[in-house]
Amino acid sequence: MVGQSPLDPSESRTAVLLEPFVHQVGGHMSMMKYDEHTICKPLVSQELSFYESLPLAMRQFTPQYKGIVSVHLKKDSLGNLTLIASPSLQTESCGRLDNAIGDSSVTIWHKCKWAASTGTGSEHTLVKWSHTQLTKTFKDSCPGKMLLRTDLQYRTDSLLEDANRNQPERNSYNPWGLHCHRQHLNRMSSKHNENKLHQFLLLENVVSKYNYPCILDLKMGTRQHGDDASEEKKARHIKKCEQSTSASLGVRICGMQVYQADTGHFLCKDKYYGRKLSPEGFRQTLHQFLCNGNHLRTDLLEPIILRLKALLSVIRKQSSYRFYSSSLLIIYDGQEHKENTAPLDNHLHFQKTNCTTSHGTNHSRVDVRMIDFAHTTFKGSKCNHTTYDGPDHGYIFGLENLIKILQNISEGK
């Protein structure tokens, strides 16, 4: 059940109460769902600079930038935390909040009960997000939302166990976004008072058109630290790259969710899983991403490869750009075209079989998008520390290997 709205009556006339973005599979910043086609994330000046000067050729491979919104934190007497976004309060830089919240405010609401204790035994308990669409049946217009339920109560320790020990498949939702969201609210509430304004980027929700969004989040390139990283952070990121497929392949898995037709749930993996993979483990996980529990989605391979080749052609022409620590999303719909599916049983699940190959004739709808540009640098950037010549060869190395592995899977190798 939804508790009493934290908004004043004047605010709630136009306010929109939103839940965390349940399809976030990677990253560390919390993503919020602003509306059906828009998400928002904390603004980083370097990322804003990238979107404001985005080359035309890259626009088809990035989320559409929709603007900036000012946000402040609000806590009621019960300890419920609220993020209130106020479009009318957009400023050039984050400032202080006066009594300016009006009818144009849009609320991003997260009901989170915080225990008074701050000792080792403290608990930050995530309580119910109640959205009726999350509990509807498969007949719902957006069935994937039902499978990624967030209207259950979870304690922090169980959430982190899912994140660190890679056991989220036991639940019917991807826990990573909730993990990021809890940590972000924790940081905001401990560091800032309620009058502090924060700025958020508004970006296209690139998975909104999919019923069962299957998402692979890939950390691209052989280097992950930005030019502004401290020596300690630089060393930490170099070590992560050396101990993962970032060094050997120029790409590593940062997160994944893939719809399993045989169980009716999403299989989820996180960044900790991805860091431990060998090149062969990476290939096997890529194969797993394309397998729905019944068969390999061979209908996806050609359109994904073609899309990646098109991106590779664009990246090769972007002189001075370095996409340090950025990610690449590969997205497809877990709901297959009828000609590619096996017969359903009476329980709306696929008959359980081994993962064999299915050859579909129609190209499935797929997408490839670059995201997370907080450490991207390029000539002319306001936040530029170093100017580089030529394209990002580390990123290109990762794309070339990714394409090669997918081609091998397509050829049955």
From TrEMBL:
InterPro entries: IPK (IPR005522), IPK_sf (IPR038286). Its EC number is 2.7.-.-. GO terms for cellular component: cytoplasm; nucleus. PANTHER family: INOSITOL HEXAKISPHOSPHATE KINASE 3, INOSITOL POLYPHOSPHATE KINASE. GO terms for biological process: inositol phosphate biosynthetic process; phosphatidylinositol phosphate biosynthetic process. The lineage of its organism: Eukaryota, Metazoa, Chordata, Craniata, Vertebrata. One of its GO terms (molecular function) is inositol hexakisphosphate kinase activity. This is Kinase. Keywords: ATP-binding, Kinase, Nucleotide-binding, Transferase. Pfam families: IPK. It is an enzyme of class 2 (transferase). It comes from Eudyptes chrysocome (Western rockhopper penguin). The keyword Nucleotide-binding applies. Belongs to the inositol phosphokinase (IPK) family.
